Amino acid sequence: MGEKVIGVVGNLEIHSEEGFPSYHRIFANKDYLNVVEECGGVPIILPFTDDYYKVKEQIKLVDKVIITGGVDINPFYYGEESIINGGTIIPERDNYDFMIIKACEELNKPIFGICRGMQSINVAYGGTLYQHIPEIKEFYLQHSQKSAYDVAVHKIKIKDNTKLYSILGEEEEVNSFHHQSIKGLAPNFIISAFSNDGVVEAIENIQGRTIIGVQWHPEKMYLNNKGMKELFHKFINVYE
């Protein structure tokens, strides 16, 4: 069958230096590319375009897609306005994520969403977000950690009879780098993991091709955590 080609959604960096004011770059953190290669896949960074025809042509070239982390999703997409503690919004990234999800739907391609990527999936399919979880008093754990990227800072409880449970079991320790989280779950999805304070940590679709989202960053943990590497392995080589 050959190696699976994995499209990795890029991010936009607006870089300013002498001679290059407002220089735009599309990039992906190397961890995403490394873990795809480690698990036998072929990573390709997917650059932004606002042409849906070209997005579909991009998706035709890959077997599966990883939607990476990044800045906040514009709350207009789920019927709200940005609150005072909202973060940065990059409209090009929002538009591209939603076109990627639509193209994957039409072309029947599996999706793995990480951090913002999970939130994009939820919003694209009709869900909503908490814009700033430190303002929600029941969320008491550290979800935007100060420790190194590969350090776990809280635990998650994983639901039985889910793909995530089959890989990680009923409990896992994870890192955490987010200030937003799922509020209203999109139709036809289930919550497959929670943190102990109730933040949604993972979702899966109910039927059809595989769509998995996780709120933490397993690409930062896979070198020292067999479960995180197995999560990528299953997505790349097993799940359809």
UniProtKB/TrEMBL annotation:
The keyword Hydrolase applies. Pfam families: Peptidase_C26 (PF07722). It comes from the Bacteria. Keywords: Hydrolase. The keyword GTP-binding does not apply. GO terms for molecular function: hydrolase activity. This is Gamma-glutamyl-gamma-aminobutyrate hydrolase family protein.
